[in-house]
Amino acid sequence: MPEYDINSTPIISVSHLGKWYGDFPALVDVSLDVSKGQKIVLCGPSGSGKSTLIRCIARLEDHQEGTLFVVDKERQSGKAASERLNGQVGMVFQHFNLFPHLTVLENCTLAPRLVKKLSEQDAEAIAIKHLEKVKIGEKATCYPPQLSGGQQQRAAIARALCMNPTVLLFDEPTSALDPEMVSEVLDTMVSLAEEGVTMICVTHEMGFAKRVADLVVFMADGKIVEVSKPQEFFAAPQHPRAQLFVRQISGH
Amino acid sequence: MSATFVAHPSTVPVQERRPPEAPSALSVIGTELFGSWPRIIGTAIFAVPIAYLVWWVLDWTFLESVWRADDVEQCKVAVGACWSVIAARFRIILFGLYPYDDQWRSALASLVIVVVAFLSCLPACWTARRVIVCWVAGFAAYLLLMYGGVFGLAKVTTDRWGGLSLTLFVFSAQTVIGMPLAILLMIGRRSHIFVIAKLSAGLIDLLRAIPLLAILFTAAVVAPLALPEMLQGDKLTRVVIGYALFFAAYQAEIIRGGMQGVSEGQAEAARVLGLGKWQSLFYISLPQAFHKALPATVSQFAIAFKETSIITIVGFFDILASGQAAYGAGEWYPYFKEVYIFIGMIYFITVFSLSRYGAYLERRTKNARI
């Protein structure tokens, strides 16, 4: 596994971030730096703010306090909705969010053509390369609803990769899948991690976290309460909330 | 014997099993109609009057009818339909008061509209540029042929346009102008800018609150009093714009309904990939919204086609009013039924084609299951 350089300038720098939904504090004083090549697993109980955090990084949500630096520039609070994004921050959603009226190939080529102004041939060549990498090259001409959940999520990963993102965000990518399809998506994510893609994953998949994560960031009540190496985190969590959480997901 | 529940692995290989044969459609209908005594009686009670009605219609329409164009005398003695009235007067129905010798222009202009409408229904034509080129060229050809005044064509003012030719124009012009307006109003109503959202919503609600009749009166009669001369334009133009506004208000709400069915995640995914607001709207949200709104949209088109007949109250002779003129002249007066049936068939063919086209569009995208 390629090592990341902790001393390099972080490509994502979250500092003292605060966000409220009405009076409800969703994020409280959250600070997190991510270096190039680093893999972060974000976990925590439901409502802990982990999805809100990566949605803020993706600029799908506004933060109200603190500073947010993503890839190349400082992102202003209160401006998320009007900011034009460029695909540098790729995102994979829990419910895939593939475009159902376009084929898998068109899903992958649309943004490169419209945003990067690639020719149809170039965009298709890149798309097919990534579709084959996630092992659904033969499904290129299908429409998303004709695919299984696992295939759809892999197509969504390929779609994000087609924009050649600097960082890839995963928002519970396996939570909406049938159990027998979880591993095919995780395998894809592991091989991306091994290629050195910078990733922030919101997931509860312990096996994945142990295998690829450089750091596990545990959140509760909108705060980061524990940051540690995955082995340490799952074997001996420090914070009581983390201890409870690890007990619960380790299950029966 | 006490009930025992048994679960065991299946032993028969899958290949050896076949699904039970489904009954044929004919045998299903047979069972439905004659499957039991009550059904047989029910079938008989309904079948006899229906058969009588069908026979009576066939007899009147074909067996006892008169078809020769010049023979009103024969119609007087015949008990069946007098189709002669159509043969003798079809030009009035199709072209209204358009000058007789120039009616080929009206026919050609109608044909242009039908061909352009057909072309723009083909998926190959669905780029903004092609649709615009098609309709701009189509309307230019229509107006040139109908209005004349150039290339040695005699000038025919809009007050003499009429019949099917006028109906087709009013229908296509109001929908072609109304659809982009509808999209604009819908976008406006969903806008985050307070003033734009409220103005669009107000305009939609206002237009929907006014009866079409009143809108047409306003366009035809009131607008010339209120507008400066240079903005008045032709009466038909004003009336078509009135129709288009009315169509747009309803269609805007239909598309908005479709937009509400498109999940938030679609726009989020588009945005994260780098698509701009307009790209996201035109490539991602609108195509799905249109698909979801298809049945309602087809209905709106059908309504728009039939409501063209209201134009008669502001003094234009659409196909329905022309039909009245066709039988109204003296000797053909008793044969109004035939005229209305003929016009009814034209309405039916148009609206039925629309609904078949809608069904085709739904079939076409069934794999996408939007």
Describe this structure in words.
Chain A is α/β, with parallel strands linked by helices. Chain A has eight helices and ten strands. In chain A, the strands form two sheets. Chain A has a six-stranded mixed β-sheet with strand order 6-7-8-3-9-10, with helices on both faces. Chain A has a four-stranded antiparallel β-sheet with strand order 2-1-4-5, with helices on one face. Chain B has a domain at 156-367: MetI-like fold. Chain B is flat, with a radius of gyration of 28 Å. Chain B has helices spanning 25-34, 37-63, 72-77, 84-95, 103-121, 128-147, 163-189, 194-209, 212-226, 229-232, 235-260, 264-272, 277-292, 294-307, 319-328, 336-364; one strand at 317-318. With 370 residues, chain B is an all-alpha fold. Chain A binds chain B through residues 58-60, 81, 84-91, 93, 95, 97-102, 110-111, 114-116, 142-146, 156, 159-160, 163, and chain B through 192, 263, 265-266, 268-276, 279, 283-284, 287-288, 291, 365, 367-370.
Q: Please report the first level of CATH classification, the CATH class of the domain at 156-367 in chain B.
A: Mainly Alpha
Q: Any idea what the shape of chain A is? A: globular
Helix content of chain A: 25-40%
**CATH homologous superfamily caption of the domain at 156-367 in chain B:** MetI-like
Largest sheet of chain B: none
